[in-house]
Amino acid sequence: MPDLRPATKDDAATIVALMDMASHGMARALWAALVPAGQDLHAFAIARAQREAGGFSYRNTRILTEAGDPAGMVMCWPLPPDPLPAADLPATARPLVDLENLAPRGALYINAIAVFPAFRRRGFARLLLAQAGQGPQALITGSDNAPALSLYRSAGFTEQARRPAQGDIHWQPAFFHWLLLAR
């Protein structure tokens, strides 16, 4: 029987792996653009997941376990009342922040739902989505992610906007657009 629990700092490596999967590798590219010279990329990403504040934090994450093994996660938080500036962000992140800024203010922003491949096709992503929270919700996914789009649409999400996915020297998207979905 799966168990959903709040993440702890000890879950940071799991959070990093699942976030990289959920972002189609873009999270790793963003960390690569931010990591100080000479610092290990994986250690940098883990330290970010262990932060007490900010969106990408263990505090905004719940871990799904199956027989004690990490199976997946959901990371979400309420959108801030004011739009976020995007001009100083890496080019890959700007379309995502632009879409976040179009989401209803105060909505629960589901930053990531991810399930490790060995645990897929068991309804865990649907469970994570159902347990994300109540009220208005928004999320962003790649335009080619057919399984996720099918799940989100069946749960009542509709497309609100789309922006071209932007690549850089660290990451090239395998799809054309990021989609903002809301319910």
TrEMBL record:
N-acetyltransferase domain residues? 2-182
Q: Which Pfam families match?
A: Acetyltransf_1
Q: Main EC class of this protein?
A: transferase
Instruction: Show the InterPro entries listed in the entry.
Output: Acyl_CoA_acyltransferase, GNAT_dom
Q: Which GO terms describe its molecular function?
A: acyltransferase activity
- This entry's Enzyme Commission designation comes to 2.3.1.-
Q: Taxonomically, which superkingdom? A: Bacteria
Is DNA repair set as a keyword in this record?
A: no
Q: Which SUPFAM superfamilies does the UniProt entry name for this protein?
A: Acyl-CoA N-acyltransferases (Nat)
Q: Which UniProt keywords apply?
A: Acyltransferase, Transferase
| Official protein name in the record | GNAT family N-acetyltransferase
